[in-house]
Amino acid sequence: MAADEKAQAKGEQAKGKVKKTVGGAVGNESLTAEGRAEESKGDLRAAKEKAKDAFKSK
Questions:
Q1: CA 23, CA 9: separation in Å to the nearest integer?
Q2: Torsion, Cα of 34, 39, 41, 45 (10° steps)
Q3: How far apart are CA 32 and CA 55, in angstroms?
Q4: What is the pLDDT of residues 44-58, one digit of tens each?
Q5: Residue of 3 and 16 predicted with greater confidence
Q6: CA–CA separation, 32 vs 57, rounded Å?
């Protein structure tokens, strides 16, 4: 399950980064904001998984 969560986090981060970049390139503030939000969601998911891994190893 953890591998799925980590992969999903990486996917969200990548998708968010693309949306943010495309939104900035075309001047679409809504798309840029959506990309930032999705990238942050992926960052939070990755941090959660890192924390879970840290507690599992103890």
A1: 21
A2: 160
A3: 35
A4: 999 999 998 888 866
A5: 16
A6: 38
